[in-house]
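Translate sequence into structure tokens.
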Amino acid sequence: MLNFSAIVLLGLLGRRITYAFSTIPDFTDWLVAAMLALVYTSIALPVGFWSGFLKVDLQTSGRTIVAVLMGCLLSPGITEELLFRVLMLPHPSENASELMLWFWGCASLALFIIYHPLNALTFYPVGRSTFMNPVFLLLAAILGGACSIAYLQSGSIWPAVAVHWLGVTAWLLLLGGYRRLYG
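Result follows.
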């Protein structure tokens, strides 16, 4: 039997999910997401190439390209944004204080970073060496921050999913991520 607190929490999470998926981003929301993607790119490329974590490596197999483009939309795109942004961050309609936004933003980002090595140690062992790499974790932290801003600014999951999806698919298909993970 659910107690009152659990019912309230489930109601809150249900509203967050409903609002996040049903809020249609406007032009400004997409513009902010594009700017966040550009800022992320301007940081990730120099750091990644300087450290040797990124290498130009184009995937040319049509099957691989389609699988990555479609697969990354679901995971990590939608699933990680749902878990680390929508469920954890106050939706703009909640009118949370700046202090609460910072608290939940930092908690969400910390869990997002920790999730990757834990995922590699449990469910995704092929990613072990990559997901434990400090450069990967730094780039994931920056990407997670950009996705949080996109979500909080728009109240919609879609700009955050787009930023996340773009970053991951570019890495996998153009910058050596696929070979790093799958040989």
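Note: Residues 4-182 form one domain.
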